[in-house]
Amino acid sequence: GCDSSLNLTSQKATDAVDSIFQSLRDIARARMHMKQFNSIHNPGSNTHQAASYKPLLKQVVEEICNPDRPDPTDIEHMSSGLTDLLKTGFSMFMKVNRPHPGDHPLLIIFMVGGVTVSEVKMVKDLVATRKPGTQVIVLSSALLTPRSTIELLFATDRLQPDTDI
User: What residue stretch is flagged as signal peptide (predicted)?
Assistant: First the structure.
């Protein structure tokens, strides 16, 4: 709401900063229902004081490529055929393990909203070190740059799709 720095007032600057922090809170609230992937912030501990940042995409790929293979809590297997539906139905009566996302030799990741080049490289490197032999395909609705990321976060209404009508 300010076309030049000459028209900038303290109230306009405060409103802009409040809007930015409200957007960040909204983004964090979108993951509140998750049990495992609900935060990208690690506050540290008594022994390791420094807080750290762990990207959501990195957390998901590490869980998929985890050799200990616990049952992922926030990643769900969707049954896709009659055989899978029968297995799912019988799993209520007998111990049947759900397929793990890392079982398949092909991993396809689709990022809604966009992905950066560094995120694609991070996924490639993680899969190569943790699950060699797995082919990974990263698809996205956009290739993000630093400028486009800021514009998507703060300059557009994320709840209203851009239909170009």
Answer: none
